Task: inverse folding
């Protein structure tokens, strides 16, 4: 009995904070992950899990979290990511939730038929999507589930080439100027940035030749795959 009580005390010490922040309501749990349920996979099939997808379903995980928008409303969020970063994302989104860091929307990109442009215009935070990188013919790191885009409308991908500037999403031109203040903006050194960096992610806002302010990707990903 003494050994059992000691073990229980250690578990509470290590995991008490996480357990205290795990929410259950209407039969659903938050800040938790599982293998892709059949009902979720049906939503993904032919969309984010496109024909010819080379990432096994068994390597992907489904997350449910809670988050706040800028109005302070508590919202449900869902993501699909690679199993190797699932614990990192759960830790990050728990801390963002506790700090009431604003995230406007977080639903599977399949709600937009896996159309990245439509999802970004809706300012939807998403991760896994088996697709080509924006403006390129190579696969995106989102194809492996090892990258995530946060509040993408206000944190666009900006590419400069041959004197031309391309912005993704196309409606995000007002948010190219990062000296301006506006809601949902990710800045170097803010909480979102710090948490992802602490968990070993790269930020697209640090890139030299283009800037992808919405984008965080894991270092340990399949080589030869880009944003």
Result:
């Amino acid at each position: 009995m003494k050994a059992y009580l000691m073990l229980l005390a250690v578990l509470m010490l290590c995991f008490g904070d996480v357990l205290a922040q795990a929410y259950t309501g209407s039969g659903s749990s938050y800040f938790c992950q599982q293998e892709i349920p059949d009902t979720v996979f049906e939503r993904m099939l032919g969309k984010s899990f496109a024909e010819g997808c080379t990432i096994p379903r068994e390597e992907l995980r489904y997350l449910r979290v809670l988050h706040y928008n800028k109005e302070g409303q508590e919202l449900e969020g869902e993501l699909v990511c690679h199993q190797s970063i699932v614990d990192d994302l759960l830790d990050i989104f728990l801390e963002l939730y506790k700090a009431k860091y604003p995230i406007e929307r977080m639903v599977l990109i399949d709600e937009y038929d896996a159309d990245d442009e439509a999802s970004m215009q809706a300012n939807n935070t998403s991760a896994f999507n088996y697709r080509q990188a924006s403006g390129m013919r190579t696969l995106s790191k989102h194809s492996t589930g090892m990258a995530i885009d946060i509040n993408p409308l206000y944190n666009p991908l900006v590419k400069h080439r041959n004197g031309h500037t391309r912005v993704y999403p196309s409606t995000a031109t007002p948010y190219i100027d990062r000296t301006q203040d506006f809601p949902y903006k990710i800045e170097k050194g803010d909480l979102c940035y710090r948490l992802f960096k602490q968990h070993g992610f790269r930020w697209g806002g640090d890139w030299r030749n283009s800037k992808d302010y919405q984008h965080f990707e894991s270092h340990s990903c399949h080589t030869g795959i880009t944003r």
Notes: The chain has five helices and eleven strands. The longest helix spans residues 2-20. Confidence is low (pLDDT under 50) at residues 7-21, 221-227. The first strand starts at residue 24 and ends at 25.
